[in-house]
Amino acid sequence: MPDVTGPELVGRLSELRDEIPVLFMSGYADSQLLSRGVSEEAVGVLRKQFTSHELIRMVREALSPPGTPNLPG
Questions:
Q1: How far apart are CA 47 and CA 68, in angstroms?
Q2: Using CA atoms in the order 64, 16, 38, 61, what is the torsion angle rounded to 10 degrees?
Q3: SS3 content of the chain, % helix, strand, coil (to 5)
Q4: How far is CA 14 from CA 21, 37, 41, 48, 73, in A?
Q5: With contact defined as beta carbons under 8 Å apart, do 70 and 61 qualify?
Q6: I need a surface site. Which of 24, 25, 45, 67 has the fewest CB within 10 A?
């Protein structure tokens, strides 16, 4: 994205809508993510290289209401 980082975009969107689901996709190590302002506790992080099944699972988790049990698959 030109002129804005992922964490900056999330900050801007959070001002407009609280509790917006976020899923980052990254090839960075944990320490590099933290230095870029990404907290795994606050958002989902999908590590590259991932499968389509992993992507579907993480999107499902991000969009599910809090407290919803994770479904297989």
A1: 23
A2: 10
A3: 40, 10, 50
A4: 10, 14, 16, 25, 29
A5: yes
A6: 67
> In the beta sheet, which residues pair with residue 25?
46
Q: Averaged over 2-21, what is the pLDDT?
A: 82
What six digits make up the tokens of 40?
Answer: 């795994």
The pLDDT value given to residue 38: 58
Provide the H-helix boundaries in the chain. Answer: 6-16, 30-35, 52-63
Residue 9 and residue 1 in contact, taking contact as beta carbons nearer than 8 Å: yes
Q: What is the mean pLDDT of residues 3-14?
A: 82
